[in-house]
Amino acid sequence: MTKLLFRDDAYLREASATVTAITSEGGLILDQTTFYPTSGGQPGDSGTLSWNGGTIDIATTVKGEGDAILHLPAEPAPLPTVGQVVTQKLNWDRRYRHMRVHTALHLLSVVIPLPVSGGAISAEKGRLDFDMPDAPEDKAALEDDLNRLIGCNMHVTEEWITDAELDAQPDLVKTMSVQPPRGSGKIRLIRIGVGKETADLQPCGGTHVANTEEIGRVRLGKVEKKGRQNRRVYLHLD
User: What does the pLDDT read at residue 209?
Assistant: First the structure.
């Protein structure tokens, strides 16, 4: 099992780790990682692994079998050996932009309070697919509402509930296509705001900024029709 350092500290850019296994395809498994693996619409992190005598570029990070996380080299190169200690360094600028976009998308689901059927994140933009038969009548007003929420400088925190507690609050789940992972006995929630001033609370395993002010101003891009009941709304970082 790989310890998820990014779960405890999304701002951790560098850490040491021990190589515990190497797959037949050359994916490296570490005992702990700062690299977020591709899931929930958020891309896997990139960066470098270095050790005494070598360095490799990591192109992306994905989930492997069980709880393993695979760090995939960008190109064939000499690898560290099992048991060797490495230093992992994130491509921080890319990860931080993912955090900003991801948190902004949570707030987009607030200003457009409709069921979400899909989503994706990149370093420049993100999008959500809504169960929305008709396009928004006033996209500029939605953009203003979204930036007003971002400008409230709300804290972004995590908390945990049980499967049973989530079952008792089904409205917390906004995504129709991706259900929160179950089986561990607890589910992670991301809260934006505090107490009665909470703007959003929903299950999420991704990385987020600590305060909405870090998102900066965003703009809404095109709205695409993706089906009779579906509209795709794009959000861009300025």
Answer: 98
